[in-house]
Design brief:
It is a single chain. The chain is an alpha+beta fold. It is 29% helix and 24% strand. Strands 1, 2, 4 and 5 form a four-stranded antiparallel β-sheet that branches. Strands 3-12-11 form a three-stranded antiparallel β-sheet, with no helix packed on it. Strand 4 and strand 5 form a beta hairpin.
């Protein structure tokens, strides 16, 4: 829990001024202290290393279950715990979402990556009680220009969002930047699922919408830690949950979907990406 002495006098004064003016602020208890930020940063380093480990090995012919084994073993080797494993009953250590799977795909020995597939590998780590979370898109071999473009545009959406993460800005500006860039390029952003606060728990407040309006939502304050993870569809924004496994989310029209995720800290001068 953050305490007043965790913040500079200038930050405390500005928080009080904005609070007095009626701006919505995250509860102080969800702002991270310097000591907590360091713990989250260390967790993030493991998360990044695990994704690097996957990046060196992923290829056509690999099963998504093999990716799960890589993530599980490498996370443990580095001293971490895979956060997804057992979370609300999730059965694996990583989410692997291929082509029209939007998110929360469950690794399986029966899902073999093919030339031209696109896949999101979503890794989350617990280290010394601190949580980190990030994901990357991987293109398997040569793929279609449409899929290449979708992956690129989604990454650009994240970059546009990061430009809006600065102290005393608004959280709605982050989502607005994503939505604007996606729509400008003929894509649609999933509405039902968004980013989230993270650090002392896997999912904390706030919910981060990626279809939000300018100058709306919470005030961005130093010590806030959250994910930017837009899910961008080539077709309709509508999605559905697989009723068989209760987890995997698909595009309603069978179009491809892409997602990149970073974990970001609001600092007194801008932001710091803690996991990518």
């Amino acid at each position: 829990m953050a305490t007043p002495d965790a913040f500079s006098p200038d930050v405390l004064q500005r928080m009080e001024e904005y609070r007095h003016k009626g701006y919505p602020l995250l509860p102080d208890s969800l702002l991270k202290t310097p000591q907590q930020i360091q713990g989250i940063r260390e967790s993030g380093r493991i998360n990044v290393a695990v994704l690097d480990h996957v990046a060196e090995r992923i290829a056509a012919g690999v099963s998504t279950e093999q990716i799960n084994q890589w993530v599980h073993e490498e996370t443990l080797r580095l001293g971490g715990i895979p956060a997804p494993l057992g979370y609300q009953g999730f059965p694996k250590s990583v989410c692997t979402s291929v082509n029209d799977q939007v998110c929360h795909g469950i690794p399986s020995p029966d899902v073999i990556l093919q030339e031209g597939d696109i896949i999101n590998v979503d890794v989350s780590t617990i280290y010394n009680g601190f949580f980190s979370d990030s994901s990357r898109m991987f293109i398997i071999g040569n793929t279609s220009p449409k899929r290449q473009r979708l992956v690129r545009i989604t990454k650009e959406c994240v970059d546009a969002a990061l430009e809006q993460v600065k102290p005393w800005g608004r959280l709605g500006d982050v989502g607005y930047a994503v939505h604007r860039h996606a729509r400008k390029n003929g894509c649609n952003v999933v509405r039902e699922i968004g980013g989230h606060g993270i650090g002392l728990a896997f999912h904390e407040e706030p919910f981060v919408s990626f279809v939000s309006h300018r100058n709306s939502g919470l005030l961005l304050v130093p010590g806030m830690v959250f994910t930017i993870e837009p899910m961008v569809n080539l077709g309709s924004a509508h999605v559905y949950v697989d009723t068989d496994d209760g987890w995997t989310i698909y595009t309603a029209d069978g179009s491809d979907s892409a997602q990149w995720e970073v974990q970001v800290l609001v600092t007194e001068t801008g932001c710091e990406v803690l996991a990518w």
